């Protein structure tokens, strides 16, 4: 696989996890599309390592070790076929430069710290690539570990993009410390998140949309859990408002994430479930969403799409 001229790699330094996707361009129905070849995930939990605005030594070290493992898989790749992007945790860390200097050495490639606006555009490009639609107006919600991107678009064109500094990792650490869940914390976290969304939703609601898409690991996790446990509204799949409310009740019954017995929930996702759930509930409430479909990873597909496009032009 190494050095194969048809392969591209996207590395996503997220606030919860670092992920690498290797893909190749294949021709399908006269179109070049990305086919996923391999995906790797490292649960780095950068957002958990924030101490007074900087990443602590443990978080830095977890990040460097993960990138060294990715770097081994990328040996033989040309620079133009790999793009690594860092999102909100690195964007906001006071010691980002210290982290990046060593991170690039371990990975063997440059790392771009992207703005929330560029992150939103890449997310939308990835969704447009994997769920083609020309006519429909689409709302894409991407809940990451440290930020949430909202994109309204049509076809391949993003029309409105917004990045809000709330995420499943940061809210998990702030309101559900150590995995404890109380009714008060759930209500307060949802209230704060809803207020953040309400600052920007007017323009989105004015334009309207026909389809809501969740493009992050949080959305895919919630959809899987709701469907596997029969929590959604009767006969509906994906994510529904009723399903999210029923899941909240399940969390309140057990009072601690470790006590949760839910089909379809992977252990490494336990810690981000409460934070991801309240941010999604707030998005549904503020935007008036009733149902959402989960999609493939938007950001990584968007990065691969950009690399492929550049190479072919």
Please characterize this protein's 3D structure:
The chain has 313 residues and is of the alpha/beta class. It has eleven helices and 13 strands. The protein has a six-stranded mixed beta sheet, sandwiched between helices. Strands 3-2-1-6-7 form a five-stranded mixed beta sheet, sandwiched between helices. A two-stranded antiparallel ribbon has the order 4-5.
What brief labels describe this structure?
about 325 residues; alpha/beta; Nucleotidyltransferase, domain 5; six-stranded mixed β-sheet; five-stranded mixed β-sheet; 11 helices; about 45% helix
Describe the protein's topology:
Layout: E1 7-13, E2 18-28, E3 31-42, E4 50-51, E5 54-55, H1 57-73, E6 82-86, H2 88-92, H3 96-107, E7 111-113, H4 116-130, E8 137-143, E9 148-154, E10 157-164, H5 168-175, H6 183-198, H7 201-207, E11 211-214, H8 217-228, E12 239-240, H9 241-254, H10 273-287, E13 291-294, H11 298-312
Helix/sheet category: alpha/beta
CATH superfamily of the largest domain, called what?
Answer: Exopolyphosphatase. Domain 2
The CATH topology name of the largest domain reads Nucleotidyltransferase, domain 5
Order of SSEs: EEEEEHEHHEHEEEHHHEHEHHEH
Distance between the termini: 24 Å
Mass-distribution shape:
globular
* Rg of Cα set: 19 Å
H/I helix tally = 11
> If strands are numbered along the chain, what order do they take across the biggest sheet?
10-9-8-11-13-12
Strand fraction equals: 15-25%
Instruction: Tell me about the largest β-sheet.
Output: 6 strands, mixed
Averaged pLDDT: 92
**In percent, how helical is the residue content?**
40-55%
Query: What is the count of distinct domains?
Result: 2
* Level-1 CATH class name of the largest domain: Alpha Beta
The total strand number stands at 13
Gross CATH architecture of the largest domain: 2-Layer Sandwich
- Unreliable segments of 5+ consecutive residues: none
């Amino acid at each position: 696989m190494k050095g194969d001229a048809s392969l591209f790699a996207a590395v996503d330094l997220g606030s919860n996890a670092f992920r690498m996707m290797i893909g190749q361009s294949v021709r399908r129905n006269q179109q070049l599309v990305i086919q996923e070849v391999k995906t790797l995930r490292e649960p780095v939990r950068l957002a958990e390592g924030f101490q007074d605005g900087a990443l602590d030594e443990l978080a830095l070290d977890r990040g460097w070790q993960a990138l060294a493992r990715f770097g081994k898989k990328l040996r033989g790749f040309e620079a133009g076929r790999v793009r690594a992007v860092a999102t909100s945790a690195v964007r906001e860390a006071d010691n980002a430069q210290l982290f990046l200097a060593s991170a690039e050495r371990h990975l063997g490639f440059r790392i771009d710290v992207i703005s929330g606006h560029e992150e939103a555009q890449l997310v939308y490009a990835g969704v447009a690539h994997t769920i083609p639609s020309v006519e429909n107006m689409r709302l894409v919600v991407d809940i990451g570990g440290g930020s949430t991107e909202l994109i309204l678009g049509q076809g391949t064109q993003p029309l409105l993009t917004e990045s809000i500094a709330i995420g499943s990792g940061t809210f998990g650490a702030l309101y559900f410390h150590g995995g404890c869940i109380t009714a008060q914390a759930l209500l307060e976290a949802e209230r704060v998140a809803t207020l953040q969304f309400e600052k920007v939703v007017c323009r989105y609601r004015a334009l309207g949309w026909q389809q809501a898409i969740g493009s992050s690991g949080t959305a895919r996790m919630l959809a899987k859990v709701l469907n596997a446990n029969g929590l959604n509204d009767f006969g509906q799949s994906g994510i529904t408002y009723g399903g999210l409310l029923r899941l909240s009740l399940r969390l309140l019954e057990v009072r601690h994430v470790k006590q949760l017995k839910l089909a379809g929930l992977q252990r490494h996702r336990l810690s981000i479930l409460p934070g991801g759930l309240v941010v999604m509930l707030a998005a549904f409430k503020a935007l008036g969403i009733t149902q959402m479909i989960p999609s493939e990873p938007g950001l990584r597909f968007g990065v691969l799409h950009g690399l492929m496009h550049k190479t072919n032009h």
